[in-house]
Amino acid sequence: MKINLVLKALNHPIRRDIIARLREGPLSAGDLAAFYDVSKPTMSTHYATLKDADLIRGEKDGVTIFYHLNATVAEDALSSLMALLGTGETGQAVAPSLNKETSS
């Protein structure tokens, strides 16, 4: 796993929010884009960054792309981060949550 790519992907609040939305199930690129006030090229960049980190995968259905969460990679990244911080075995709290934030 490429932890640096995962951390980079989770560095932006829109990408963290995409991950949170995909936890509920697959969504089309258009449905996801409707939640954010950004251009289509910007959304494409967000999707590409998440795909590069293997956090999401796209599945084409005709002309529509549906994105799915790759939860295994997200769990592995969290596990690696906890091990890095030395908190995985002791059960202590980890650094701040990876949930969406209001600023980047």
From TrEMBL:
<dbReference type="InterPro" id="IPR001845">
    <property type="entry name" value="HTH_ArsR_DNA-bd_dom"/>
</dbReference>
<keyword id="KW-0805">Transcription regulation</keyword>
<protein>
    <submittedName>
        <fullName>Transcriptional regulator</fullName>
    </submittedName>
</protein>
<dbReference type="InterPro" id="IPR036388">
    <property type="entry name" value="WH-like_DNA-bd_sf"/>
</dbReference>
<dbReference type="Pfam" id="PF12840">
    <property type="entry name" value="HTH_20"/>
</dbReference>
<keyword id="KW-0238">DNA-binding</keyword>
<keyword id="KW-0804">Transcription</keyword>
<dbReference type="InterPro" id="IPR051011">
    <property type="entry name" value="Metal_resp_trans_reg"/>
</dbReference>
<dbReference type="InterPro" id="IPR011991">
    <property type="entry name" value="ArsR-like_HTH"/>
</dbReference>
<feature type="domain" description="HTH arsR-type">
    <location>
        <begin position="1"/>
        <end position="89"/>
    </location>
</feature>
<dbReference type="InterPro" id="IPR036390">
    <property type="entry name" value="WH_DNA-bd_sf"/>
</dbReference>
